[in-house]
Design goal:
Distance between the termini: 40 Å
Order of helices and strands: HHHEHEHHHH
Helix content: 40-55%
Number of strands: 2
Number of helices: 8
Strand order of the largest sheet: 1-2
Number of domains: 2
Shape: globular
Largest sheet: 2 strands, parallel
Strand content: under 5%
Radius of gyration: 17 Å
C-alpha cells in the first residue's frame, strides 16, 4: 500500500481501497487502479470488439497499455505523478522489448532482437504473470472477431 501512496502522491493516511476490500485482502493487495483488475487479454478483446483506433488513457492502466502495444494501437496516458509515469513507462518498455524480439510483431528487427535478447536475458527468462482464476474467462466472455 505504501508503494501505491507514493506512486500516486497520496498522504500516508489515505485509504487505498474500499473498506470491505481492505478487510478481505492483505493491506498490500490493492491494485493501483481498479481497472487494473482486468487482464491484458480482456483489454485486447475490448479494443478489437469496438475497433478502437487510438487510446487516451486518463488513468495510466498498465494492462491497457500492453494490450494497445500488442494490437498496434496508438496509446497515450495521463499520469498523476512522475513516479506513476516512470512506473508505466517501465512496463511499456519491458513489453516493447519483448515485441521487438517477436518475429510476428511489426516492431521486430533481427539485429536489434539479438542484442536485446543478450542484454535483457532476465526479462525473457521470467515466466509470464499468471492471471487470477476469476479473470481467466474475461476475454472469452466477449464475442470477439479479430480484424487483422
Amino acid at each position: 500500500m505504501d508503494e501505491k501512496r507514493v506512486l500516486l502522491g497520496l498522504p500516508k493516511d489515505a485509504a487505498c481501497g474500499p473498506a470491505n476490500w481492505m478487510e478481505k485482502h492483505s493491506q498490500s493487495a490493492a491494485p493501483l487502479w481498479w481497472q487494473e483488475s482486468k487482464s491484458s487479454d480482456f483489454w485486447k478483446a475490448l479494443l478489437i470488439n469496438y475497433r478502437i483506433g487510438q487510446i487516451v488513457d486518463l488513468c495510466g492502466i498498465s494492462a491497457l497499455s500492453v494490450a494497445a502495444l500488442h494490437k498496434h494501437i496508438p496509446y497515450v496516458a495521463v499520469c498523476l505523478t512522475k513516479n506513476h509515469a516512470n512506473w508505466l513507462q517501465n512496463i511499456i518498455d519491458r513489453e516493447a522489448i519483448k515485441c521487438v524480439c517477436d518475429q510476428q510483431h511489426p516492431l521486430w528487427q533481427q539485429s536489434l532482437s539479438e542484442i536485446l535478447k543478450d542484454h535483457f536475458a532476465d526479462v525473457f527468462e521470467q515466466p509470464e504473470d499468471e492471471e487470477p482464476a476469476d479473470e481467466a474467462g474475461d476475454a472469452d466472455d466477449l464475442m470477439c472477431v479479430d480484424q487483422e
